[in-house]
Structures are given as C-alpha cells and as structure tokens.
C-alpha cells in the first residue's frame, strides 16, 4: 500500500513470537517496539488487528487465525477493560477448528498469553487495546 509521495504504509507485522511487555494507552509494547491499536498474536507473528466491531467479534475478524489453525490449540481473547462473552457463532466456528477459546479482560489475556508462550504452548491471542 502506498500513501503520498515516497511514503509506504505497510500492514503492522512482527515476524515472530514475543511476550507482551506492556499494554494500555490504546496500544501494546513488545520486542522493544510499540503498536497503537489491537493485536492478533499468532504462531507466524504479531499483527496489527482491527475487528469490525470490538463489542461483537465475528469469525470474519479471525481470517489469519483460521489460516494457521493447525498450529493453535487455544485462543485467548482480550475483550478490553471488561470481560465480554465471545459470540456463540464465533465460539462454534473456533470449536469446529479444534481451537479452545478463553475470553477475559485484556490485562488477564496478556498475562496468560505470556505464561503459555513461555511454556511453549500452541497459543494465540486476540487483544483489544485499552486506554
């Protein structure tokens, strides 16, 4: 994607797995970098992620995850400041793919992701940014 003369805007992507060092103020810090907005942490890397509706996540928001579903056993869903349930249709689609889904507040999801990542578990995380 190109925007303006000489400026190239690329999709936010870190090609590796890394613990999340900090969160808040609308973003995250990991691998000595920072990202403003939500994140999708997958075996192939960490991606900038903007679901259509953060209050009602849908299967369409997880295309990258489903492309890597063979490498993921558990998906942690950080739903923001408060815990919100994952919609039944999304939960069903994840179950069909063999992926356990655990919704929790973003802070809890970050901490759990870091522990499971350190244990080398087949974990992914969808983290909605919090202010």
TrEMBL record:
This is Mth938-like domain-containing protein. SUPFAM superfamilies: MTH938-like. It comes from Manganibacter manganicus. It comes from the Bacteria.
